[in-house]
Specification:
Layout lengths: L9 H23 L4 H20 L5 H20 L2
Length: 83
């Protein structure tokens, strides 16, 4: 995901890095505070939508970015779904 920074327009790069920092903090909070699976999946789906909005403005292939994001977010949701 951090590799996507180079494909974004210059004006969006700092916002994407801030988004990634927030994503890691929110994921850690969800993982270590034992939140409900419904809340965790809902928050991760919102973050996935934000990721897609960033990738829409990317110079890289949108479909490739969506497939990678689906894979990563799917893996990230596993600990919450399997509880």
């Amino acid at each position: 995901m951090i590799g996507n920074v180079r494909y974004l327009p210059r004006k969006l790069r700092k916002w994407y890095i801030l988004y990634l920092i927030c994503l890691i903090l929110i994921y850690g909070w969800l993982l270590f505070t034992d939140q409900s699976a419904v809340l965790a999946v809902a928050i991760l789906l919102v973050l996935f939508a934000i990721e897609l909005a960033f990738m829409w403005h990317s110079e890289n292939s949108f479909l490739g970015s969506v497939l990678v994001a689906c894979l990563l977010y799917g893996i990230w949701m596993l600990p919450f779904v399997l509880r």
